[in-house]
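== Item description ==
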Amino acid sequence: MPNVMPNPTGFFRQQSAYVPRMQYSADVNYNGGTRVDFGIPLAAGTTNISTGGSVAAAGSIDLSSVVELPDPYGRTIVVALSGAGTGTLTINGYDYLGQPISEAFTLAGATPVVGVKAFKSFRNASFPVVGAVTLNVGTGAKLGLPYKALRVQFETANGVFTAAGTLTAPVLTDPATAVSGDPRGTYTPTTTPNGVITAGVITGTAITAVFDMVNDVNAAGNGGLHGIQQFAA
């Protein structure tokens, strides 16, 4: 039986709310900026999703028991080994809409490899024979977005105005691949995410930002506010 516990966005895990060619949404301001509330994003780290998983033999590590990320629209992730090792690791999970999503990482030993797609929850990490080392998975610095963003106007930190961070543009590759970027884009805030979970309570700096969203589709009629459909292995 699938896990269908609701996440903070109101969508259900493993039940996709993706809308192809989506043109309108009540929370998108087409005559000005759309404010996105990121809540209190977790501090970035290389071990705060999973740590110590053996990759000594080809196979996979079950990540389905990992609690969904509190970041409302997901987060890019980081993978690193405990020592020397190479090969291609694939993280499988879901975005904030419940779309299945897969991302391939080229391992570089203990050097963290930063992902480009925003994950909300996880299924597993699959890998070839790597060696007598372990795998760590953590959160990156980039935040997922609810819709395809064209520009960021400004940011607030605990309600105080600050300069805009950096928008990584939506990737329009159609169909998406295991290594193509996020179809809605991702956001690196000026304010460093510093959220910490203690006894189930998140404390830290609340971040919002205002974006111009775009609902265009490509020549094949794909895209819209939710972007190109995610790739899943």
